[in-house]
C-alpha cells in the first residue's frame, strides 16, 4: 500500500538521473537552438540527441501498456514516471511519451491493422514522425462529441473527408505526418454509431494547415496547435480505424488513459513550481528578512504541498482502478482527477508566480508558460463542470426515484 | 495498493451490519432516553445494552494496536473501521473507541505501571468507567504546550496539584473517574522536561468541576466539556506517568494516533452528510423539479465527493506511514490531515446544510451538530495555521541558507 | 457621495453612546437574569428598563419609514443605524427594531385598516406586545412561495385556518400575541393570487405551539422559533390583510426591506467580530510573540476588513436604490446583498473564532452564536443559490434569443 | 450618493458613443495593421487617426486633475470614465490616458520646473511622444522601495547614472523619448531621503534597451516592457525632479492615483468579460440546451456580477476619499482596491474563459490577454500580501499594547 512496484522504483531512479544529467541542463540549449532557427516549426537538433540517449537507456515508450510494442507498464506503474517527465516541457518527447502521439500510438497498437501498424505505428514508436488528432471543431461545443460536423463519405474504395478542425495539437510540427480524424460516416445512424476515425496522411491533397493557435500568447512552437481544413480529402477505405461507426468507441478508449497522463504530468510540473517557490523565498529578501520568514508565504507553501499530495494520491488511485477494474468502472475517479489535477496545478503555479513577483510572469521563468498550459487543461477534455456533472450523476444514481 | 487488508474487510462488513442493525435505529432511542433523564450527565440505558452487544460480536477496543489489551490492528487497518464509527455520534462509545478514553488507554497500556494498569486500564478497557485529559488551560495559548501553568509540586510521598484546566472533555459524564493531568513539576528544567503527566482520581479532595462548556450551543451531554480546578490536590507519587519531566514526551506520543482517529471519524460523518444531501435533493421539489436536477446543487455534490475522496486517501497514507516509518517521520502527513480532514468535513457538511434549508440547522437533522464538532476540530489540536507552519518548515528545510 | 445625511450622523452618535452606556454593559446582566428565570420564554426585566431609556432618547422605531408612526427615515438613512444595533443581540429589541416585528409593523402601517392598526399596530409600536410571521412550512420548499399548503377557507363571516408552520420566529416569547399567517384562500386562482395574509391572535382556539426549534444548539430564548399548528382556527373576515388573494403581493413588499435589515445587522456583527479578533490577537501570545505579529493572522484580518467594507457599500447602494427607484428595480441589488452579507459575516466571524481558539466556540464569547445566526441567514430568505439565480436571470436578459 | 456628477455623466455618454463608433470597430484594424508592420515596435497608423478624433471631441487628457493642463476632473469624476477606457486595450492611449504616461505627466505637472514642463510635459500632453518609468530592478525586491540600487552620482553640473532597470513599460515603443529614473543620490542619508528621480532622455549615450520582457507569452507590442541599462549616463543637474533626496516623496504621490487608474480599468475589462460570457452562453449549445440554461454557468455569472459591483463601489469610495481627505488618509482604501480589483478581474475573466472553452485561451478572443494583464497587476505595485499587510497594520493600530 502506498508503495510503488520494484520496476517503477528502478525506472524512477534511472529517469531522475537522466533528468538531472540531460534534461534540465539542456532546457536552455533547446530554447537557444530554437530561437536560432529560421522556421519556428523546425526542431532544435538537441532533441534528437536526447532521444537517442533516452532510447539507449531503455527510457523509451514507457507509456505503452502493450508489452509487444512498448514497456508494458500498468497505469499505476507508469504514473510516477510520467509525473517526472511532466517536470520539464521538453522531457515527454525525449522519452517518446508526448501527447498526442501517445494516444495515437495506443489506438494503433490496439485497433490498427497489420498494414496500418507497419506504416504508422512503427515510425511513431521509433520517434521518426509525429502525429495529431483531429477532433475539436470551431463551430460546435466539443465537450459533447455527438456535435461533430466533419463528414466522411464513402465513394467506391475511398472516403472523402470534408470539415474544419482546430486545436490539432502537434500539427504545426514539420515532422507531423499523420492525422487521425474523427468525423461522421453516417449522420442517420444511432447517436454513438455515426462517427468514425480515419487515418489521413497530412500530405494528402485537400489538407490545409490554415494557421496556428496561441495559448495565452504562447505559440508552443515547434509543436503548435493548428486549425486544419479538409476539403474533399480522399483516402483509401482501408484507412478507417476498427470499422465504420466505431469512432466514438475508440474515442472513449483513448481519452481515459490519454488524459490521466496529463494529470500525472501536471503533478510533476506543480512539484517543480513548488520547488521553485521554496528556492525563491529562501533567497529573496524584502523588508529586512527572507520571504521564507513571512507567515503568509509559509501558509501558501503548505497549501500547495497539501494540494499536490492529495492530487497525486487520487491520480494514483484512478490509475490503479483503471488497471484493475477498467476504465468504465473507474470513470468516477477519472472524472475526479480531471477536475482536481489542473485546478491544483493552476493554484500551485499561481502561488509560485506570486512569490516570484514580475519575474514569475515573464520568459525568465517557466511558471507563466506552465500556468497557461495547466489552465488550458481545465478545458481541453471538457470543462470542469462537465466532469463534476459526471460525478454527480454517479453519486445520485442510488437515490433516483424513477429507477 | 488501495486495498484494505483481509482483516479490515471482515471487520468492516461486521461493523457495517452492526451500524445498520443497532446503531442507526437506536440514535433516536438514545435521544429520547436522554431527554427523559433527570440529570443530563447521566447516561441513557440503551448505551450499555449496545456496548454489551458490541463486545459479544468482538467489535470492542478495535482502536488499540497493542494486541495484549486490544485488537492489535495497525493504524492503516483501523482507519476504515474508525471511519464507519464516525458516522454516528453514539457509535464510538458503543465500541469503546471514543475519545479521550482511547488516547488515555493507549498511554496507560504503553507507559503505565502494572499497578496503574490494574486500577485504571482494566476498567477502561472493560468500558466500566470513563476518563478525561487535563491539558488545555484558559489563560494561555495551548497550541504552544510549553505555556502550561498548572503546577505539580512534590511534597514527600505526594504530589500537590494546583491549576485550572478547561475543555476536559468527558469530565461531565457521571462515569468519569480519572483525569490524566499535565502540569509542571520543574519550571526550571529545560523547556521540554518541565512537564509531567499524573493520574488524578476525580473524587480526590480539591478537584472541582466548575462548569460545562458548550460548543455552538450544544452541551454534548452526557459527555460534556468541563472546566476543572485543582486546588491543593494530593495524590501519591506513584501516580506519575513514566516519570517526572516526561509529560511532553507522552503528549507527543499520544497526539499522533489520537488525532488521526478524529480525522477518520470526520471522513465518516462527511460521508453521511453527503448521503443525506443526496437523499434530500432527490426528494425535495422546488420550482417544478427536484433539487437534484439543479446544476448548482449537482456541482456541489461533486465537490463534496472529490474532497472526501482526497481526504480519505491522505488519511490512509498518514496511517500507513505511522505504521511503517513512525510518527516522527510521518509528522508532515499527520499535520496535513489535521488541516485537511476538519476543513473538508466543514465544507461537506455546510453544503449538506444548504440543500436541507432550515431543517439543516435545527435539531431535526444531525448536520448542524456535526458541523459544530468538525469546526471545533480545526482548533482542538492546534489551529490550521500551526499545522501549515509545520508543513512549511519541513518543506523549506532543504533550502535553508543557514544549514 | 459616500457621506451619511446629517440626521443619520446625529442619530449614529446618539446610538453609539447608548450602546456604550447601556447595551454592552447590560449584555451580561441580560444573560444572568435570563438564566435565573424559571421559564426560559419569559423576559429578563432589564429589557423593559432599556426599552424605556431608548424611548426617552428618541431611539425608538427608527426602522419605520412612515413618519406618522415611526422615525420616517429612508432605508439609506436607517442602514448605518441598523448596523450599529446589529452589534449586540439584545439591541434591536431595545430600540423596537427587532425582526419579525419590524416587518409586521410595516405591513400593518401600510396595509392595515384603522381597526387593525388600533388593535395591533399601536401596541407593537409601543413595544407592549410582540408578533410572529407564519410563512414557512415543514413539508414544502419555502424558497418557492407558491408551494404553501395552509388553507384559509371562508365560512360566513369567518375564515377557517388549517395548516402547519415552522420557523415562526418570536412565537415562543410569552409576549407574542399575534401571528400574521400566509395561506391559500383560493387554490384555483392564478398562481400569485391564491395566497392571503391574515391576522391570527395567538390565543385563538386551535392555535398550538408544538415545540421550539433550535439553531445549532441555541434555543434563542426568550425569542425562539416555533412550530405552530392551526387546527380549524376561526377568525373574523375583517382579519384579512389588504384583501383576499393579495398575500403574495404583501409578501413581496415585506421581504425587501425586512431582509435588508438583516444585512445591515450582519455588517454590525461582523465589525464587532473583527474588533474582537484584533483585541484578541493583540494580547494573546503564542510561540514567543503576540498572534498579531503572525503574518497569517494579519492577512486574515485584512481579508475581513476588505469583505466588510465591500458588503457595507453594496448594502448602502441597495438601500439607496430602494429609496430612489423602488424595490422592483432594485431587486438585483437586493439579491446581491442577500448573498453577500451573510456569507461575508460567516467568513469574518469564522476567522475571529479561529484566532480565539476554543474560547471562540463556547459560551464565553459571542462568536459561535453569531456564526450560527449568520449561517442561518444564508437560508432564511431563500438559499444563496436562488438569489444568484435571480441575478443571473437579470444579467442574461439582454442576450435572450427568444425575446 | 451613488450618483455620478453631471460632468461625469455627460463625458460618460460621449465616451460610450466614441467607444461604439471608433474604438471597438477599430480593434481589429489595429491588430491587422500591427501584424503588417515590419517592426513590431512601430505603431499602426489607425492610432494617430483615433487620437485626432478623440482630441477633437474633447476626450483628451481626462485623467489630469490639474485644470491648467488637463480636464480638471476629480478622481471620483474620472473613475467611471477610466473604467470605460479600460474596456479596450487600445482605448487608453487613444484618449492620452495610458500608463505610464499619465503618472509621468502628473509628476511633471505637479513637480516640474517650467523648463521641464516645456520640454517634456507639453509633447506628452499633446500625445506626440511617450515616456517610461524606471523603478523596478531585477536584483532586488521592488515591493520594498528602499532596496533600489541604481546610483545617481553628482559630478559638477551633471548627474552620472549607473544601474539596471526592468519592467520599464512603454520603453520599447519607438515614440518613447523620456525615462523618469529612480535611483540613490545619497546612500548614507536617512532611509527615505536617499532616492531621487531624474529625467533621462532615452537617446542619451549609455542608455541601452537590452531586451523586452514578455507577459504570459505576450510581447505587448508596440508598447512593450523593457530591461534597460544605464552605463555612466550623464544628464544636466537641472534634470532632477523636485530636488535631491525627494524621489521617495514623489513616488508616494505618484503611486496612489496611478494605481487607482489600473483598478478602474480592471473594472471595465471585467465588465466586458462578463458581457462576452453572457453573449457566449446565450448562443452556444451543449447537451441539447444553451449553456445559459445550465445552473452552474448561471451561478458563475452571478458571482461575477457581485464581485464587479463590490469592486466598483470600493474603487469609487477610494477615489472619493483621495479627493476629499487625501491619499494619506485614504491609504487603507487604496490598499484595499489594489487587492480587490485585480483579483476580481482575474476571477471574472477566468470564468469567462471557462465558458468560452478553447476559444477563450487563444488569440481569437481578448480574454486570455486580459487575464495575463490582470494577473500581472496582482504584482505590479507590490503583491497582494503587502497591501493586506498595510491594511492589517492600520486595523491593529488602536489595539497596540506599546502605543
Automatic annotation (TrEMBL), chains A, B, C, D:
Its cofactor is FAD. Pfam families: Acyl-CoA_dh_1, Acyl-CoA_dh_M, Acyl-CoA_dh_N. GO terms for cellular component: cytoplasm. Residues 245-393 form the Acyl-CoA dehydrogenase/oxidase C-terminal domain. The keyword Acetylation does not apply. GO terms for biological process: fatty acid beta-oxidation using acyl-CoA dehydrogenase. The keyword Oxidoreductase applies. GO terms for molecular function: acyl-CoA dehydrogenase activity; flavin adenine dinucleotide binding. Gene3D superfamilies: Acyl-CoA dehydrogenase/oxidase, N-terminal domain, Butyryl-CoA Dehydrogenase, subunit A, domain 2, Butyryl-CoA Dehydrogenase, subunit A, domain 3. Coiled coil: none annotated. It comes from the Bacteria. Residues 5-128 form the Acyl-CoA dehydrogenase/oxidase N-terminal domain. Homodimer. PANTHER family: ACYL-COA DEHYDROGENASE FAMILY MEMBER 11, MEDIUM-CHAIN SPECIFIC ACYL-COA DEHYDROGENASE, MITOCHONDRIAL-RELATED. Belongs to the acyl-CoA dehydrogenase family. This is Acyl-CoA dehydrogenase. It comes from Alkalilimnicola ehrlichii.
